[in-house]
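Quick log. Single chain, no ligands specified.
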Amino acid sequence: MSSRVSCRNDFGNTPFESVTRKGKFMAQLSLEPNEQDALIWALQSVVSDLGAEIADTESQEFREDLKERKALLMNILQRLS
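-> predicted structure:
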């Protein structure tokens, strides 16, 4: 049994289309349950590591970039779970 991970972009395209516009790319990914579990595990690991990286980063600009990336990955994790 496979699960479907899909998203829509701001252009109203169906999940079956991939489009690049203004630097944005939309894609659909179908995963087997064990693949989805592995992806969730990997994302959780990266999000956890980002927390330490954010705390140790001296550059405010880089810290903000890391926080944005962490939020993005957490959003993906939420949608996968």
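The longest helix spans residues 33-56.
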